[in-house]
Structure formats: C-alpha cells, structure tokens
Amino acid sequence: MTANSNNLNVGMRCIKYMLFVINFMFVLTSVLLITVGLTIKTIFSEFDTFVDDHFMSAPTLLVAIGFILLAVALFGCVGAAKESTAMINIYGVLLAIIFVLEVAAAISAFVLQGQVEDMLVRTMFKSLDKYNDNPYIRDAVDFMQSALECCGVHGREDWEGILATANPVNTTEMSKEIVLPESCCEMHYQGEHESECVWFTDGCFNQMNFVISQSAMLIATGATTVAFVQILGVICAFMLAKTIRRTKTQRALRQWQLQQSLGIYNKPINHYNPPYVQLNNSEKPKKDPDAQDFIYQPNSPSVN
User: Fold this and answer.
1) What's the rounded Cα separation, in Å, for the pair 45 and 51?
2) Per mean pLDDT, which range of 150-159, 207-216, 240-249, 266-275 is the poorest?
3) Which helix (H) or strand (E) covers residue 198, if one does?
4) Topology in the membrane (predicted)?
C-alpha cells in the first residue's frame, strides 16, 4: 500500500514538473513575442510617414499576445502547484484563445505583406511632392534617405522638378538640372576644413520594401510558429488535467482502502439509528419491582 502511494506521489510530481517546464517555455516565448513586436512597432513608427496606420495593428497584437501569454503561463504554474484540475482546464482554454489570436496575427501579417509594394510607391511619391510644404514630411524623407543611404524612390531622378532650381547642389554631369536635398549625400571629411559630398545613387524603394516586408514576414512566421507550439500546450494541459484528476482519485481510493483495512473507517451517524452509548450505573433507570420481565415469544404482536 505504501509503495502504491509513493508511486502516485512520484507521478504527480512528474506531472507538475512537466507543466512547470512547459510554462517556462511559454514565458520565454512571451518575452520573445513582446521584444519582436516592440522592435517592429518601433521600425514602423520611424517610417510612419510611409506606412499606413493599419500596419501598426499586427505588431501591437503581437505585443498584446506576449503579455497575455506571460500571465497565462504564471496562472498555469499556480494551478500546477495547487494540483487544481479546474485551474489547469481554465489554463488550457486560455491557451486555446491565445492560439486563435496568434492565427489572427499571422493572417493579418501575411495580408499586409502583399500590400507593402503598392503602399510604399504611393506614400513615398506623395511624400516627395509635399517635401517643400510640410516640415514633418521633410524630416521623415531626410531621415529615410540618411538612414538607408538612398535618394528618391527608385533613384535620384525622382527629385526632378520638385525642389527649387536655385543653388543646385547636384554637380553630376548626368543630371545637372536636378536639385537634390542634402540628405541624398554623405559628407566625407578629408581635413579640418575640407569635405566632400558623396551622392547616393540607389533609390529608397528597394530598401524600404525589404525592411517593411521582412518585418511583416517576421510577425507572420513568429505567430505561426508559436501557434503550433500553443496547440501542443493546449493538448498537454487537458491531458495533464485528466491525469491529475485520475491520480487524485486513485490517491483518495488508496486512503479509503487503507482506512478500511485498519478498521478506522467512520460510518456517518444516522439520526434514526444513533450510536450505542454505555450508561453509568447512576444513569441506568431503576427497575420497578412490580413490573414483570418481558419475554419474547415467536407469536409476539411486535413480529406481526
């Protein structure tokens, strides 16, 4: 009997440790999701002039999923520590809800990836046209060209006719009439007072397309990968809840059998059949000397 009880205890500990390991993996996954989501959201925010507002929904959803998964993982650890079947079942249901959110984030990212090229062409040319009128757009375009070391959308020819022709800064023979902003060149200092401007020749579209497309792909692949892990987590959660319930039932059965074998099982008291209590001599009723002892007979009326 002791060996069986020890086996049950060992099995329960193995189940709890298994759930702790799974939740630890989910904690690491949640931190990864939060980090990736915040990084991509920062990238989109830096180029928000060229990125539509609905593109911000995917990284925001990824960050929210990370925080929810972190809370659910901690909830699962508490349920495992308390050996609560109800908490483990709730934990499995919450994982299933997170799985649905991750699938939604992955689908959203895949859809957004197909819209990147058309969006960038539209927003980048629109930003060049408003370069002189809007200081905010001017700073955004200058930041893009300086950070990515590029000029224009497909090339510096896209600046033709946009800037004023006075004080041209472009000295190349191919496009002397094109005026380019200072962000299209990188200053190389040769001495204390001498500097040379090296003009960027590549357009910004290819690099912007790579940055935004790869960010959307990272969201889609990350959410899809974690979603498949969530499926395993949901299956394991319900299996562990079932095992915990069965193990606790077996443990209670073992305890009941042990009590039966030792004769310490207490039968519940019946109100109509109270337990026998021996009376003291002082509490016993005195016998009437004139009363006759009742002798049971087979034909007694009490039998009929």
Assistant:
1) 8
2) 266-275
3) strand 195-199
4) Multi-pass membrane protein
Question: Bigger pLDDT: 230 or 173?
Answer: 230
Q: Determine the angle formed by the axes of helices 2-46 and 205-262, rounding to 10 degrees.
A: 160
Please return the burial class of 184, using the count of CB atoms within 10 Å of its CB with bins 0-12, 13-18 and 19+: buried
CA pair distance 140, 136, nearest whole angstrom: 6
Q: Which amino acid is at 139?
A: D
Q: How far apart are CA 209 and CA 122, in angstroms?
A: 12
Token pair, residue 54, equals 């609905």
Instruction: Provide mean pLDDT across the span 257-273.
Output: 61
* Mean pLDDT computed over 227-244: 79
The two tokens of residue 101 are 């959110």
For the chain, report the end-to-end CA distance as a whole number of angstroms: 49
299, two tokens: 């034909």
How far apart are alpha carbons 37 and 257 in whole angstroms?
55
